[in-house]
Amino acid sequence: VAIPLRELFKDYFLIGAAVTPQQTDLGTAHGQALKTHYASLTAENVMKPDALQRVKGQFTWDNADRIVQFAKNNNMKVRGHTLTWHSQSPDWMFYDENGDLHTPEVAMKQLEEHITTVVSRYKGDVYAWDVVNEAMFDWDPNGQIIYREDSPWYKIMGPAYIDSAFVYARRADPDAKLFYNDYNSIFSWKRNKIYDLVKRLKDNGIPIDGIGLQGHWSVNTTESDLRTTLNLFRELGVELHITELDIPVYASNDEPGSTEYNSTFSFRQKVAYSMIFNVLLDYSDIITNVTFWGIGDDHTWLDKPGRKAFPFLLDEELKPKPVYFEVQKLVQKR
Ligand code: G3I
């Protein structure tokens, strides 16, 4: 019999899921699965800048509030995602009415207002924020390009927005944990840049509490990439959250898509998820939250027509898959 995930992991870390507001309803299967399994919620989309402040000065809270209220009612924490990002942010944050980039002063002021308003509203309710999302350049083995230079934030003022975002967030809620969040963070070309960034922020007295490692990993993810990264980040003395965990079933992008879950997929996922959770449990002194980027296989950003990703431990009906029991076994053995 399946032990609820939040029970299973309670001695190690909070286990969470990314959600839509519609899913946070106890009258639905999703709401019931959330209540049973998860101790932490993240809004998949509705706390992003374009969702909260599409029009300058006009904040829309309904969707985000719904998730926060559901979490409160059901004894869950909320991770806030995200305050500062180059994507899913309204154009007015970056461009004036002529389509030219704002001056650093104007953009900085708008960033401060956004962060202060959002973080203040959820003070005490959102326990951790992804203050800055995906600011580092994703591929550059020689390490020449450090920051994501196509970000309008970067184009306007270089990396200064990163430092300021953390300062504004801390001011608005001194008790919230503040995170830098990024993907591909377990690969050498990216993890070293993230390490350097966080080291620089800490050395300069910028308030940062942790690193979010987006867990968009794969059935080919290696144990050594994971352990090397966790060892490296441990040196920074920060908390770690695995923020967006999903493991699609395919071994490569070239593999033909399928809409049926089969025994090959199941086997691969058992191997991958067992390895991953074994490692995460080994680092549970520094990993304090592990959040799936969805609830069950019925809803995931990874699905394409004719090519379902089946990336979670719960199936399309939100029932535990064989890989769920594999993970359960390994936790119980510890
Ligand atoms: O809400 C509109 C809807 O009105 C419209 O009809 C429809 C047509 O395309 O689009 C809907 O918006 C979509 C939105 O998700 C809500 O479903 C956007 O097109 C779509 O681009 C958006 O995708 C989200 C993506 O971020 C955007 O970058 C995914 O749901 C979300 O899972 C994904 O999450 C990101 C994390 O925030 C950061 N890390 C990577 C991760 C995966 O890309």
UniProtKB/TrEMBL annotation:
Positions of the GH10 domain: 1-330
Leading EC class: hydrolase
Catalytic activity: Endohydrolysis of (1->4)-beta-D-xylosidic linkages in xylans
EC number of this enzyme: 3.2.1.8
Pfam families: Glyco_hydro_10
The entry's keywords: Carbohydrate metabolism, Glycosidase, Hydrolase, Polysaccharide degradation, Signal
Claim: rRNA processing is one of the keywords in the record: no
Active site residues of this protein: 244 (nucleophile)
Domain of life, source organism: Bacteria
Family statement drawn from the similarity comment of this UniProt entry: Belongs to the glycosyl hydrolase 10 (cellulase F) family.
Annotated protein name in UniProt: Beta-xylanase
